[in-house]
Design brief:
The chain has helices at about 40-45, 75-85, 105-125, 140-160, 230-240, 265-270, 275-280, 290-305; strands at about 10-15, 25, 30-40, 55-65, 65-75, 90-100, 125-130, 190-195, 200-205, 210, 215-220, 245-250, 250-255, 260. By secondary structure, it is an alpha+beta fold.
Length: about 300
Amino acid sequence: MNATAEGRSLELYFIEGKPDGMLTAEVFNWTGHVLMTPRTRIGPALSRKEASFTGIYLLLGEKDGQPCAYIGEGEDISDRIRNHDGRKDWWTTAVLVTSMANNLNKAHVKYLEARLVEEAKATGRVMLDNGNTPVRAGLTEAGQSNMEAFLNYLFMVLPALGVNLFVKNTRPTLVTLESGSGPRTTTPVFTLSIPTHGLTAKAVLDDGDFVVLSGSLARRQWSGMNTEDSGYARLHEELKRTGVLRDDGDHCIFTQNYAFSSPSAAAAVVYGSFISGPGTWKLEDGRTYKEWEAAQLSESAEATE
């Protein structure tokens, strides 16, 4: 956890005054510029000035029932996307990343493209339509440092726009249940036990996330009736597809520490159906997460009086 991380201000501009239309994203002191557009508005988006700049772009959608992405670069990215428009019919959203002063060159964007493909493959959240991993362009040490700094901002902006293909939810440095490896956590350890299904999972809080520890058990299949298309059901499927959950006898086992946004999300994946997360995760002393959280809030209130 980085306790000294500085805050950042993200400015979103909804070009057409509606949340499902074109938008731009900028961060103070970052030279980058992001233009995001649904495919239905690709014509007006590509007519904008920044669309003709040198940059990188992401095409996002679904292919064969799985989330899919294509990562590309170009000296005039509008030309590249127009070419893709006729040949790739699966994408529904485009993200164009340029610099406000149009000072990225061909070597810069080839380096950025290669790094983004590397990160997307390492994360494994979506299928890539790219084929081979492009080779990083040869940049000076200073040039590489500048592009890595550019990427750090981009990796902060994209999740705020709902683009999560580069988000890593694994936490390899935490303690695991299988081997006891990794530094011991000083935060409370919560346990979810479901004896009727032979399930036991353990979790800790880490940097604001609820992290289920490697070695925890989960249901092999989602079992919630009429909820097969829910976000939690899709998450369960994604974790199996990416190998975070691996079949192990009658259950699945967490092969890595995995960060969830809430105790409820973690509990749903473990149980394979909707379940009250705050009321089912418990400390060793028997208190539920909900009770522990209430105690933390009470102590915080007393400290401010």
